Amino acid sequence: MEGGSIMNEKKRWFTLLLRVLTYVLVAVVTCVSTMYFMLRQPGSKLTTLRYLIDTCFIGEADPQALEDGAANGMVEALPDRWSYYIPASQMQANEEHTKNAYVGVGITITARPDKTGFDIIRVEPDGGALAAGIQPGDVLVKAQGQPVSQLGIDGVRSLIRGKEGTTVELTVLRSGAEQTFAVERKQLLTKVASGQMLEGGIGYITIANFNDRCAQETIAQIEALTQQGATSLIFDVRFNPGGFKEELVTLLDYLLPAGDLFRSQFYTGQETVDPSDEKCLKMPMAVLINGDSFSAAEFFAAALEEYDWAVLVGQPTVGKGYFQNTIQLGDGSAVALSIGKYFTPKGRCLEEEGGLIPEIVVEVDEQTAAKIYAGLLEPMEDPQVLAAMEALKK
Fold first, then answer.
1. Which of 149, 238, 275, 343 could pair with 290 in a Cys bridge, judged by C-beta atoms 3.0 to 4.6 Å apart?
2. What separation in angstroms does the CA of 141 have from each of 80, 116, 123, 222, 226?
3. Taking Cα atoms as reference points, which of 95, 59, 386 lies closest to residue 236?
């Protein structure tokens, strides 16, 4: 009896194993058959690939990540370096950038080389961080009690951003000791243009971008400096990523005499020309540019140069002559797609020419460039500003 029970048990286990192997074999054959069938069908390669992943992939695939990856890959495969895909998760940040407004605490951070935290390089005067006591030079090490080294820049941003009027707990390292602050989130306007008087009656204006309020704030700075006695101007568009054509044209119209300012050519072949009226601002001008001056910043400098209105100082620009239209997609994501070309007043396409070469080339090392970008270098210590001042004096 005992021997028979053992034999029966072995037989049951053998039968069970055989069934499992049969199921596995059937699954494999089904997947292979399906794969063979799908690969032989006409239609989209992406559709086939998605079906295979959904049917045969052994792991767990995130559908949203698959769609974002496919969309990003399609845009990156274009013979164009300026078109880009914007996932739905990044749309809010993109809109805040173009509007020069956001809800946050008012700090600018950069990752430390040792990955132990983020250096706070700028604290906005109207932000909750300054009111709470956070200072430039502090090192952000925790957000809501979580080490920022584990969160990364996107994780830190998502924790810091939130509803206006709420608070976020930030821990910084200062003089080797940790300090924790409860910081209120506020609606903040990004300052687009800032100005100051330099020696010799020179007004110095930094333009951060050509997005919302650029023309308004820049013209306000020009008028304030001329009222203070400025007899010449330096416009600083280094590290300026460009922005809206309308802002650029409004500012150029204020500065330049009658004539063509800008020409746009769309993918349809249609062309538009933006002219300037006779009113203008007559005084010596210089424009600071570098390899991170893009798009509208380049065309701003080019127009002033072509009208013999300003001398260009600094380093060659990159040459961005295509313009993009941001098209919203069904899932909340978007694609910024190049749909046309821009031309300077004299009809030059910077995309084809490779950018602007300043009349006065002044190279700076990486450390100096980093200080300029962070706003940590005083104008009178900036070799490119000094070169522009010298050019205006002559």
1. 238
2. 39, 7, 16, 40, 44
3. 386
Query: Would 101-188 and 191-393 be classified into the same CATH topology?
Result: no
pTM of the model: 0.77
To the question of domain 101-188 being in CATH 2.30.42.10, the answer is yes
pLDDT digits (tens, 9 = 90+) for 178-237: 999 999 999 888 889 999 999 999 999 999 999 999 999 999 999 999 999 999 999 999
Q: Which CATH superfamily is domain 191-393 in?
A: 2-enoyl-CoA Hydratase; Chain A, domain 1 (3.90.226.10)
Please enumerate in sequence order all residues whose Cβ is within 8 A of that of 310, keeping only pairs 6 or more positions apart, or say none: 235, 285, 286, 287, 301, 304
- What the block records as the tokens of 216 is 């308004």
Distances (CA, A) of 292 to 140, 169, 213, 239, 244: 27, 34, 21, 5, 17
Query: Hey, where are the domains in the chain?
Result: 2-86, 101-188, 191-393
